[in-house]
Hints:
Elements: H1 3-20, E1 23-24, H2 26-36, H3 38-59, E2 64-79, E3 86-105, H4 109-175, H5 181-215, E4 225-226, H6 243-253, H7 255-275, E5 281-293, E6 297-303, E7 309-314, E8 321-325, E9 327-332, H8 337-343, E10 346-354, H9 362-428, H10 434-468
Parallel strand pairs: 1-4
Antiparallel strand pairs: 2-3, 3-5, 5-10, 6-9, 7-8
Organism: Autumnicola lenta
Protein name: TolC family protein
Pfam families: OEP
Amino acid sequence: MNKFSFLAILFFTGLLANAQEKEWTLQECVNRALENNISIKQSQLDLEVADIERLDALGNFIPSVNASASNSWNTGLTTNVTTGVLQTQTTRNFSAGVTAGLTLFDGLRNFKQLQRARISRLAAEYSLEQMENDITLFVVDSYLQVLFNKQNLEVLRSQNLVTQEQMERTQELVDAGSLPEGDLLEIMASNADERQRIIIAKNNVKISLINLAQILLIKDYDSFDIVERDYDILGAEVLENSVSSIIEKAKAERTEIKIAETNMELAEMDVEMARAAYLPSLGAFFNYNTRESGAGRIIGFETDPDEPTRQIGVVENTNEIVVTPNTVSTLGNPLPFFEQLQRNDGVSYGVQLNIPIFNGWATRNQVKRSEINVQRAEYQLEQAALDLEADVYQAYVDAEGAYEAYEAAIVAANAQELAYEYANQRFEVGLTNAFDFSQAKVRYENAQREVLRAKFDYIFNIKVIELYFGMPVTELKF
C-alpha cells in the first residue's frame, strides 16, 4: 500500500467517524421531527384526503360518461335481432353503447359539497398545524430532559472527583494519626454512594437519548447524541404581556379554536346539503348504441315447395276458403361487422326530473340529525374556548412559578456553595467531622441539580407561552 492510499483511507475513515458521531441541536431535532414524525405524516395524509374530496366535489359539475359492450351466444327459439324473425337457432349477438349524463340542478347540493370540501381542507391544515405544535413541545421537553440528565451527570462526576481527592487527603491524615478512621470510612461511604448515583445518572442519560431518538425515528441509538451546550433563556419577554392579552391572542391564533370553528362550519354545511334533498333534481342524458349479429340475414322470399299456399280465411256466405301464397325467407351470410354497427346504430337523449314527495321521513330525519350536530359543534367550540383560556392561565402561572423557582434555586445554590466551602475549610483543619462535611456536600449537589431542573423547566414553559401567543413553530427562540 502506497502512502497516498494510506492517507486516503485515514481521511475517509475520519469523515465516516464524524458522520456517525453527529450531535444534534435542539432546532435540528425539531426540524427532523416535523419532517419524519409518524403522527405528522398521518395528518399530512388527512390533508391529501381533503384534496381528493375537493376533486370529488369538482367532478360533480362535469358530465359522467360510461361505455358498455356485450357479446353473447343464444341457442333455441330466439328472435334474430337483425331480421326480427322468431326462429330456432344458435346466434351470436353483440351490442355496445355510450351514455353521458349531466346534473343540471340538484338543490345546489353540488355547490354546497364543494364549499364543504374547501372547509374540510382548511380543517385538515389546522389539524396539521396543531400536530406540529404538539410535536414541537414534545421534542423540546424530551431534549431538555436529555440535557438535564447530562448536566446532572457532570455535576455528580465533578463532585465525585472532589470526594476522591478528599478521600486521599483523609487517608494521609488518618495514617498520620491526625484524624480518626471513622472520618475516612464516612468519606469512603460517600464516595460509594456517589458512584452509585453516577451509574443511575448514566442510565438516565441513555434512556432519555433513546426516547428522543424514537421520537425522531432514529434507530441508531448507540451513536445518537445531542449537542452539550448551555441553552440561554430566550423569549422571556413574552411574559411581559398580560395574561388576558395572551388569551385574546391565543383565541385569535391558536388552531384549537380554528378547528372547532371549521367543524361548526362543516356541520352547518351538512344541514344545507340535507335540506337540498327537499328540492327537485333535474338531469340530462345522451345515449348512443349499436348492435351486430352473427345470424344470417334475409336476402329474399320464395314459395314454399312443400306448402305453396296457406289458408287465411273463409268467405262467410259461400264458405269458400281464402288462401294466399306461402313464402319463406331466404337467408344469406350476415353483413360485415362494422357495416352492421353502422346500419344498426341509434341515439337517445332527454331530461329527467325527479320530484321528492315522500320517503319515509328520511330527509326530515337527516336534517334533524344535521341540526343536532350543529348544536354539538357549537358546544365544542364553546368548550374549546374555555379549555384554551384555562390552559393559557395554567401555562402563564407555570411560567411565572418556574421563573420564581429558578431565581430561588440560584440563591439557594449560592448559599449552599458558601456553606460547602465553609464546611470544607473546617473539615480540613479538623473542626468538623466527615459526616457533617458529607451532608454539606450533598446539600450543595442537590442545590446545583435544582438549578438545572428549574432552568430547563422555565425554558420549556416559555416555549409553551410563545406558542399560545401565536408564534409559528419555525420562529421559536432557542
